[in-house]
Design a protein that fits this description.
The chain has 86 residues and is an alpha+beta fold. The chain has helices at 26-36, 40-44; strands at residues 2-4, 18-20, 55-59, 62-64, 76-81. The chain contains two helices and five strands; from the N terminus they run ββααβββ.
Length: 86
């Protein structure tokens, strides 16, 4: 599966904007990413195993906040970080 990585998290992936990961749910893909790129999951998921408030995850351009969302081998997961400030 292809995973699109936002600019602020690319320091974990060697500056790559797209990486491969395995898993049949969003949670499994994030766990696989953390095995490959230690520390990345903590920036996406909080201590209660929920997506951080400022993070959005899209599966094939459809937003989800449910880490149990099922994924197929041809799906694409996009991680986005919301911008804030004024």
């Amino acid at each position: 599966m292809r995973v699109r990585i936002p600019t602020p998290l690319r320091s974990y992936t060697g500056q790559r904007s797209v990486v491969d990961a395995e898993g049949s749910t969003v949670a499994e893909v994030l766990a696989d990413l953390d095995r490959r790129f230690p520390g990345l999951r903590f920036r996406v998921v909080d201590e209660q195993a929920r997506l951080r408030q400022h993070v959005n995850v899209f599966v094939n351009q459809e937003r989800t906040r449910d880490l149990t969302t099922r994924l197929g081998p041809d799906d694409e997961l996009t991680i986005m970080q919301a911008l804030s400030g004024g």
